[in-house]
Design a protein that fits this description.
The structure is a homodimer.
Chain A lengths: L5 H13 L3 E4 L2 H8 L11 E5 L5 E5 L3 H7 L4 E5 L12 H11 L6 E4 L6 H10 L4 E4 L1 H8 L4 H26 L4 H16 L22 E6 L20 E10 L2 E10 L5 H17 L9 H14 L37 E4 L4 E2 L4 E2 L4 E5 L4 E3 L8 E2 L1
Parallel strand pairs in A: 1-5, 3-4, 5-6, 9-15
Antiparallel strand pairs in A: 1-2, 2-3, 7-8, 8-9, 10-13, 11-12, 13-14
Protein name (chains A, B): Aminopeptidase P family protein
GO molecular function (chains A, B): aminopeptidase activity
Keywords (chains A, B): Aminopeptidase, Hydrolase, Protease
C-alpha cells in the first residue's frame, strides 16, 4: 500500500508534467523516499523503480531480502545476486532492472534518472543496458517534490527534533561545567543515544555511500572562540575561556528524517561587540515570525535579514544564505537566499539560521532551528531555549 | 611538503603508465588521500588536482579556507565562491578549476576523472568547461593505489583499531548483562567516544555526501538470534535469549582511516549446530595465518576457506567473499573472493571474515578483524579476544 503517501502521488504528477514514464532512483535518500528502505550499507545498489502507471518496485541484492521486506512499504521486491538459497533475477542489478522494465514494457520508455548523482560509468551501463530507452535528468524534479513533507515524515522529523533538543540540553549543561569541545560533543551524543533507547520503533541510521554506511546519525559538534571561523570542524580538547562564545551544532535523525539545532552560548558575559551581534540575530529571527507561513516567497526571509543587518551596521557581513531545506538530507537542495523562487507551502521544512561572521572583531554567531510550515503559519520543531544563552 | 607521501609518488607512477597528465578528484575519500583535508560537510565541492609533473593543489570554497589551511598537507590552496573578506578565483569551482588548469597548461591535457563517482551532470559541466581536454576514467587506478597504505595511514589505522577494541570490550561486557541490542550498541559507542577524548590529535569524522556530513564515525551495531540473517540493521530494543548467538559489529575511524572488528558471542551455551559453525570458522581463521604474508594471491585465502567449509560439510553455504580491503573507506574496493587478482604486499590492509549463514538451522557467524600485511607476514590490528566467546 503506497497510495497513502502523497509524495508518490506528487512525484507521479511531476513525472507526467515532464513526460517521464518511469523514474529509477539509486541515490539513498531518494530510493528511501520511494520505498522506505535504508539498508545502511549500500555496497550493492538499492534501486527504486517508480512507473508513472503502477506501483513502485524495489530491486535489492539477495542478501538484503529479509531486511528489505521487513522495512519497505513497497510490496513488489525483486532480487539480484547470489545469497544463501534465495532465487534471484540474475547475478547483477543490471539483469534485474532490464527484466523489470521489459516486463512493464518500459524498456523503450522515457526514463528519469538522477543526473546529479548517477556516476558517469553507471550512466554508460544504463545506456548500454537500455539502448531503446531515453534517459532524462530528473534530479530537480525529485528535489522539488522533496520540498514538501508527508505526514509520516513530519512525525519522524518531530522525533528527530526531540532528540536534537535533548542533545542541546546535555551540551549546554556540560558546557556550563567548562568542559572541552570534545567532551561537550561526546556527552551530548551519549545523551541523544540514551533518549533514542526510549523510542522503540525509531532507526537512528543515516544514509551511506558506496564505501561506507552510517549506523548512527545523532551528532553534536562544538567550536569555541576563534574556532567558530572554521565553520565546521571535528571537536578538539580545547577548553572554553571566560568571555568568549561557543557554538554547538546538532544534527539528529529519526527514520531518515533530520532535525538541526544550533546555539551560540556565552561563556560568562561577552564583550559588547559579540553581545550586540547575538542580540541583532535574535531580533532578526523574531522579526521573521509573521513571514513564515504559506504563500511567502522564501527569498523574503533572506531580504528581511539583509535589510535588518544593513540597518544594524553589518552591511559588509551579509551571509550568502540564512538556512536550507532539510528532510531526508541534513542539507537538502534549496537555500534560503535571495535567488530562490520557492514559495512556502504547508509541509515544508527548513532551518532558519541568519548568522554573522565578523572575523576582524572576533564576532561570530551560529543559531539555527528546524521549522515546519503549517496551514496556520509555522512551528518550531526544535524547542530548546532560543534567547540569549550564558553559562 | 608532499614528497613524503609514497601514495603521491605511486599515484604519479600509475598516472604515467596510463598516460594521464593530471588527476582531478572530487570523491571525498580520494581528495582526502591527495590532500589530507576532510571538510566533513561537502555541500561545496572539494577538488584535489594532482599534476603528473608538480605538486598537488587543493581548490576549496572560501568558507573552508581557514579549516583547509589548518589541516591539509598541500600548500597550494585556491579558493572559489564568496565568503567574508576572502579573495577568490571566481564564484564557482568551475572558475577556479579552469584557471588552475590553464595556469599549469593542462587545459588540453589528458585528465583522469573518477568515473565511478562523478555524476553525469558534472561530467557534462567538465566537458563544456574543458573542451580541448580528454577526460579518461581513473577510478580503478586510484583504487589500486589505495590498496597499499602509507606509514602515516597505518599509524591512524592502529588508532582506529584501538578504538574499535575498546568498543568491543564495552559491548561484550554490556551483553554479559543481558541488555538490548540498542543498549549494547549505544554504550559501546559511548565507550569509544570516551577513549577518543584521550587522543588529542585525532579526528573521528568520516566522509560525507552532498546532502550530509559524518561528524562521528565510531559505530557499534548488534544483531541477536535470527536477526543476524538481516546481515545489517539498526539496533533494536530486542533482548538476548539464553542459548542464542549475538553478533556485534564495530567500525571505528581515526583521521580518515578505518578499522573493523566483529564478534559472534554465545549467550550461555549454544546448540551443537551453532557451536560447531563457530568452531569451524575459528579453525579456518587459524589456518589462514601462514598465507597472510607478502606474495600470497589474495584469492588463496578464499579458496582455503572454501575447501575447509566443504570438508566440514558446509559446501552449500560458501560465502561470496570472506572480507574486503579497508582504509579511507570502511569497505574499500577489493573483495577477498575467488576472482580477485590482487597479490598481497606489505602495507595492505583488509578484513578477514570468513563466515557462515545456514538459515534452515538458525546458524550464523560474524567474526572479523582488521589485518595489516607486514614485511614479516601480518599483524592483527584489532586485538580483542578472537576465540570462542560466551557470556
Amino acid at each position: 500500500m503506497t497510495a497513502q503517501h502523497s509524495r508518490i502521488v506528487r512525484m507521479k504528477a511531476a513525472m507526467a508534467r515532464q513526460g517521464i514514464d518511469v523514474l529509477i532512483c539509486f541515490k539513498p535518500e531518494n530510493s528511501f523516499l520511494l520505498t522506505g528502505f535504508n539498508p545502511i550499507i549500500y555496497s550493492h545498489p538499492v534501486v527504486a523503480i517508480l512507473p508513472l502507471d503502477g506501483e513502485p518496485a524495489l530491486l535489492l541484492h539477495a542478501l538484503r531480502d529479509d531486511h528489505g521486506r521487513s522495512e519497505s512499504f513497497v510490496s513488489d521486491i525483486r532480487l539480484y545476486g547470489a545469497w544463501s538459497t534465495k532465487v534471484t533475477m540474475g547475478p547483477t542489478w543490471m539483469d534485474g532492472l532490464r527484466a523489470i522494465l521489459a516486463e512493464k514494457t518500459l524498456d523503450r520508455a522515457r526514463i528519469g534518472i538522477e543526473e546529479d548523482h548517477m556516476p558517469v560509468a553507471r550512466y554508460r551501463v544504463m545506456t548500454d543496458l537500455l539502448p531503446d530507452a531515453t534517459l532524462t535528468g530528473a534530479s530537480a524534479l525529485i528535489d522539488r517534490v522533496r520540498l514538501v513533507k508527508d505526514p509520516d515524515e513530519i512525525v519522524d522529523a518531530r522525533l528527530a527534533a526531540a532528540l536534537a533538543d535533548e542533545g542541546m540540553r546535555a551540551a549546554v549543561d556540560t558546557l556550563a561545567e567548562r568542559r572541552s569541545e570534545r567532551e561537550v560533543a561526546t556527552l551530548s551524543m551519549a545523551a541523544m543515544n540514551r533518549a533514542w533507547c526510549a523510542m522503540p520503533d525509531i532507526e537512528a541510521a543515516d544514509f551511506g555511500t558506496l564505501e561506507g554506511g552510517v549506523q548512527n546519525g545523532l551528532w553534536t559538534w562544538a567550536l569555541y572562540g576563534d574556532r567558530m571561523f572554521r565553520n565546521c570542524d571535528n571537536p578538539t580538547l580545547r577548553l572554553p575561556a571566560e568571555g568568549e562564545a561557543a557554538s554547538i551544532f546538532i544534527w539528529a535523525v529519526a527514520n531518515g528524517m533530520h532535525a538541526e539545532i544550533e546555539r551560540t552560548v556565552a561563556i560568562g558575559p561577552l564583550p559588547d561587540a559579540n553581545r550586540r551581534a547575538i542580540d541583532t540575530i535574535l531580533e532578526i529571527r523574531a522579526a521573521q515570525a509573521p513571514l513564515m507561513r504559506p504563500g511567502t516567497a522564501l527569498a523574503e526571509l533572506f531580504h528581511l535579514t539583509r535589510r535588518m543587518l544593513e540597518a544594524a551596521g553589518y552591511a559588509a557581513n551579509i551571509p550568502g544564505r540564512i538556512g536550507h531545506t532539510i528532510g531526508l538530507g541534513a542539507h537538502e537542495h534549496t537555500s534560503l537566499d535571495g535567488r530562490t523562487d520557492v514559495v512556502l507551502e504547508e509541509g515544508m521544512l527548513f532551518t532558519l539560521e541568519p548568522n554573522l561572521r565578523v572575523p576582524a572583531h572576533g564576532v561570530a554567531t551560529q543559531i539555527s532551528d528546524t521549522i515546519l510550515i503549517t496551514s496556520a503559519g509555522h512551528e518550531y520543531l526544535t524547542r530548546y531555549r532560543g534567547g540569549y544563552l550564558e553559562v
